[in-house]
Amino acid sequence: MIDMKQLPWTLLALAVALLVWLSAAAVQAENQRNALVLQLCADPVFKGEVSATCLATVHSREHWWQNLGYALRHLRPE
Questions:
Q1: Which one, of 8, 11, 15, 24, lies nearest residue 68 by Cα?
Q2: How far is the C-alpha of 3 from the C-alpha of 13, rounded, in Å?
Q3: How far is 66 from 13, CA to CA, in rounded Å?
Q4: Deepest of 18, 24, 27, 37, by most Cβ within 10 A of its Cβ?
Q5: pLDDT of residue 3
Q6: Residue 7: pLDDT above 90?
Q7: Residue 4: CA count within 13 A, CB half-sphere
Q8: Alpha carbons 60 and 8: distance in angstroms, whole number
């Protein structure tokens, strides 16, 4: 059984882990969204299509925190 003194620290650790996981997901989603907007991953073979391998590896901004900042400031589509 969990000691009552340990419970807040356990909940804090879980909350921080959840925050890190959600932030990583937001960074990845914003990176791919920006790459699609800028058309960085156009498939050279099939015109008008998107390369899935490019989307998995593209870096549309210089740093991950730029993607996170944009994702947090722009919550609704333009």
A1: 24
A2: 15
A3: 25
A4: 27
A5: 74
A6: no
A7: 0
A8: 39
CA distance 4 to 30: 40
Residue 36 C-beta-side C-alpha neighbours within 13 Å: 11
Q: Tell me which amino acid residue 30 is.
A: E
Q: Which amino acid is at 54?
A: C
Cα separation, 34 vs 70, in Å, equals 10
**Residue range 46-78, pLDDT digits in tens:** 888 999 999 999 999 999 999 999 999 998 877
| 0.85 exceeded by pTM | no
Q: How far apart are the first and last CA of the chain?
A: 50
